[in-house]
Specification:
472 residues; alpha+beta; Helix Hairpins; Heat Shock Protein 90; seven-stranded antiparallel beta sheet; five-stranded mixed beta sheet; 14 strands
Length: 472
């Protein structure tokens, strides 16, 4: 069953059905118990009346038995002899005796009964709780179910008899049958109503979901990520689903736009060195004496560096995790500065007095430091300073120059890809605009940060903060 509405309607109907069946059974049981108690009470009252007469030594033939069709009576001795019974009783079961015709009075009243009548005593009715049984009785040809109350009584002569009086169960059975029939008729109707209401309510509740689904299908078909799904405004789970879906679409649109700009910018940046290199090679092919070998090598190196930057960005975007090696930033700084001696435009002073170990990729951290040094060399007027210190258990590396600095409004923009604030400069001098973007991305993936500020007297100061390995 693939429909949520159908499953919800079926589930609600099943739950209601179980609840109604349980409640119906409980009601029937309580009703039967109550009606049975009332029937027992009627039978007990009638039996007590007859037992009282027996205790007063009223002759069995003269007992005032209930002259009703719904109260069959039997007076039975302990050995099962029937002493008195209703006149219209034709058959009985569930009592102490199946007989319906009393024995002759003389058989019971002979002997000491005569002596007793000269000095009659007073019998008594048993104070024990009456016994109740269920049986049948045929009165005037009609057989019905009865509840019989059995009450013991003792005559003045000491003879103990049991009085059975029945009360009909017809009223109880009719009431239970009526209630059961009403339940059997009403339960399916109620379940149909529950299923229908659940279906309608679920359809109304899921209507916004269907709108979201159809709009997502249309977005998938058109590949137009600028479209958004409708928000119902109900402030429930569906409303939050629509809001989250739109946020996901916005993030996806932004990601696709960045990817498109990245591809366009990369193509644009690659075109210049490739075109320059091709031109030099074509000129060299036609006029070997005009070959600018240094320019060709420079364009090749620039092209190689740009390809390496693009490859690193691709790996970072793919979620490549940094390594878990122990890297000494102090040693790494000195190593990088030493490798650049003779090639840098301006001298670099290093202040890294102590060991500062961090966890990560040595190659990527070296790339970050190299990019920061390249940027500082490009914008410095006379010197570059690298400082490494420990602040609150974190390694803080600053690279400062004495150039014009970065305007405050542009301090976040400089970390975007292919962004150059020095557009007036040549591409050869200004770079491709990927160094700072790569540096911040690597820093963040190492659990750190990279920000830019301004030193006293002007100049830019880039601050790299990384978690430091605590030494025991």
């Amino acid at each position: 069953m693939r429909s949520v509405r159908a499953r919800a309607a079926l589930g609600a109907t099943a739950v209601v059905a179980v609840a109604l069946i349980g409640a119906g059974l409980a009601v029937l049981l309580v009703l039967v118990a109550k009606l049975t108690d009332q029937t027992d009470l009627r039978a007990e009252v009638a039996a007590q009346e007859v037992a009282s007469q027996v205790a007063l030594d009223v002759p069995y033939a003269e007992l005032q038995l209930p002259d009703k069709e719904d109260n069959p009576v039997q007076v039975v001795t302990e050995d099962g002899r029937l002493l008195a019974a209703s006149e219209r009783l034709e058959a009985v079961s569930g009592t102490g005796s199946g007989q319906v015709k009393p024995v002759a009075p003389g058989a019971v009243d002979s002997g000491e009964d005569g002596d007793d009548r000269d000095d009659p005593g007073r019998g008594e009715v048993s104070r024990d709780e009456p016994r109740f049984t269920t049986g049948t009785a045929t009165v005037d040809g009609d057989t019905s179910d009865y509840r019989f109350a059995a009450v013991e009584a003792t005559t003045g002569a000491g003879v103990t008899v049991t009085v059975y009086v029945g009360a009909p169960l017809a009223a109880e059975q009719d009431a239970v049958s009526t209630v059961r029939s009403a339940m059997l008729v009403g339960l399916p109707v109620l379940l149909v109503i529950v299923a229908g209401v659940t279906w309608l309510v679920t359809r109304r509740a899921l209507r916004p979901v269907e709108g979201i689904r159809s709009e997502m299908a249309a977005i998938t078909a058109s590949a137009d990520l600028s479209r958004r799904v409708p928000v119902p405004g109900t402030r429930d789970e569906v409303d939050r689903l629509a809001v989250t879906t739109n946020e996901t679409l916005a993030a996806l649109e932004s990601s696709v736009d960045r990817q498109r700009r990245f591809v366009a910018d990369a193509s644009h940046e690659l075109r210049s060195p490739i075109a320059s290199l091709r031109t030099q090679l074509e000129v060299a092919a036609a006029h070997p004496e005009l070959l600018d070998l240094d320019g060709a090598v420079e364009d090749t190196v620039r092209l190689q560096d740009l390809a390496a930057d693009l490859l690193l960005l691709a790996r970072l975007d793919a979620g490549e995790k940094p390594g878990a090696a122990r890297v000494d930033l102090s040693a790494l700084v000195r190593e990088q500065v030493a490798q650049r001696e003779g090639r840098d435009r301006h001298p670099v002073s290093v202040q890294a007095p102590e060991v500062a170990e961090v966890t990560g990729s040595r190659g990527q951290l070296a790339r970050v430091l190299g990019n920061l040094l390249d940027n500082a060399q490009r914008h410095a007027d006379g010197s570059v300073t690298v400082t490494l210190r420990d602040e609150d258990g974190r390694a803080t590396l600053t690279v400062a120059d004495d150039g014009a600095g970065v305007p405050e409004a542009e301090r976040e923009r400089v970390f975007e890809r292919f962004v150059r604030l020095d557009d007036a400069r040549s591409r050869d001098d200004g770079g491709a605009g990927l160094g700072l973007a790569i540096a911040r991305d690597v820093a963040q993936r190492h659990g750190g940060s990279l920000t830019v500020g301004q030193v006293l007297g002007g100049g830019a100061e880039f601050t790299l903060v990384l978690p430091r390995i605590q030494r025991p």
